[in-house]
Amino acid sequence: MMARRRTFSEQTGNAIGFTLAWMRDRSKSVELTSPLVSEIQEIESDVYEHVRKSSVSGFSDVAQRTELYRNLSERLSRNLSLGNELGAKVETQIIPKLSRLPAEVSSKREKFDHVEQVLRLVKDIRGVVEGFEKLKVLNDDEKDPVALVETLCNCEDISETHMRSGILCCEILAKEASWWREEIRLTLIRAWKRNFCVTEEVSELGPFVCVKVGRPFESEVRDFITALNKAVLLDDCINWLASQTCTHLLNETMNLRRKVTERSDTMFSVRCITGDQEEEENGCNFVAALSPVVEALEFLFSNLLCEETAGVEIMQLFSSQVAPEFRRKVKDELLCAAVPSDLASLVQFTKLMEDFSELEDRLVKIGFYKDTISENAATRVEELYASKKRDEILGAGRELTKQRLRNTVTVMNAAGENMQVSENIVKIVDLLESTAQLAVDAAGKQPLVSATAAQTIRDVIEVYVTLTPVFHSEEFSSLPFLAAVVRNDAWFMSESLISAELFEAADLVEKLRNFGCDVFEAQLKSQCGSMRDNLRYDGGFCSFAEDPKRKGAELGLKRTITQMKGMHAVWSNCLPWKTYVAALGFLLDTAVEEILRQALTCEDIASEAANNYSSLLRSTFIARLPALFSTAERTVDNVHDVVTRLHALEEFVFVLDAHLPEIKTRWDAGRGPLARAFAAQEVKFLVRALFQNTDSRAKILAAIS
């Protein structure tokens, strides 16, 4: 480390970055995109090619080597002067314009001190050639790079300079010949540590030699090495400058917490908030807020751009990193926020956009923007307004969909029946209707706004269908009431689309209804499964038929009726009446089917069990069904119309209590009510289970066909 700390300009111009060779080894973490770096890499390839050829020809002509260095120095002279000039400008002109530079500057300078250590690892190309020539004499037949390195390190009569330069030559040739492998690198580092006591810090940078450069090539080699460094330092300097500009110039000038409000005296005024202090800038619109930024960028580019072509390249590299972020901030934090919320104000806002286009033209002129936006101000205002409204509407729809479903209101469906829907869906429907009205109002003068609003209606519906299961599936899967609410919500929205003539989303009506029906159907299946489990408790009717003392059948019937009473309590006032009747009828039909299925699997039914079970079915089950289809406002006159299998259950109860002649009369040669409820084989099965094998039973079985 040097005793005197260099100035920032000297450090920037002479010591920012590392050698290209080291940067190449670190290519995974550092991406070099500067055109200057590409040129230096080409020059470096030329040097390696000369070194490779010299290993064959000897390359002992001093004049030829001097010419090589001179050509390299001339090709790199422009980069040298540019690096010095840029370092001075960053120090004296650009940095003072970046407000409130952070503490990173001091750490940056400490990094420059470390760079000085790396810069001492200069490559002595003449020593490489001589070292390799000496190595060829020692081992002319060996072609393996690892073996070459080991031979060189173990040979005692080779000078330290030749040994080091020979190691580097092995590395170069191994890369040129595609022999390079990981063991080469490890061998070189081990050789360094063993022979030259190289520190861990330096050895990790790569196997590069540190030797004294002899005349007459001292100045040329130093210029060459310095130019290599500056190609990388220039890239690093521009990256750092772009980062500082984004952080301190753009962010602080535009202010991330800027809010745009509307006032009667200053339309589209900008309110800046800094910490807990809030100040309103009277008469300041977004164009006025942006003007200082444009002026700062003009100043910055006027200092970056010099007469030489490389200045343009640097400016392009700088703008490629800053311009995209700048455009994003302008759109998201100024333009979109400043767009008015009503169509009537767009005309006045368009005038401001014309002024803003002039600012963009200034940025194109200095080269910060490659090109300006081709659309006129009115078109851009329309796009911004449409985008802003779409984001607002979608955001509102998303938030309403995520809210809880428990708060409900009563509405009337298209059939004139009352049903309960969530408050959220009412607000979503209002949102859709207002969006449809926006599409109608903008259809003439703002076709893009109209088309965007129409598409937004569809997007809100898609968001509802997609997010409702995500946020509420656990609730409507476990709570029958909420499953009914989701079904009602979907149908209410679909009917609203039809009644409001929202033809933009007419094809989504079926999707909404299918979604609501799927949610409610899943709940019905869950209730059916629970009901079957109740009726099968402790063996159900089959165990009761064998032992009338067992209470499984009785408990199953009572639990089923209790479950149906619960559905009546939560659904009768929530669902539309016809939907409720159909849903409860479906559940009771499922219960009846399960009772009859169990009965038709019992091969022997005791007389006492038959009498007790028939009495249990009448009093516990059948007698309580009418109450399930009745409310204070509505009632079902005939339960048989909605519970289609109830007639079969009543005929089963009749058979349990009847005698053989009564069963024959009830069958009536296949024309009686028993024949309408059961097939002949089912009646025969019940007769065999209930009655002993006698001649009377045989005659009855023969009559049933």
TrEMBL record:
Name this protein carries in UniProt: Uncharacterized protein
Gene Ontology biological-process annotations: endoplasmic reticulum to Golgi vesicle-mediated transport; mitotic spindle assembly checkpoint signaling
CC terms in the record's Gene Ontology section: cytoplasm; RZZ complex
Domain Centromere/kinetochore protein zw10 middle: from-to ranges: 290-400
Superkingdom as given in the UniProt entry: Eukaryota
All copies of domain ZW10 C-terminal helical, residue ranges: 557-704
Centromere/kinetochore protein zw10 C-terminal domain mapped to chain residues: 420-532
Organism from which the protein derives: Notodromas monacha
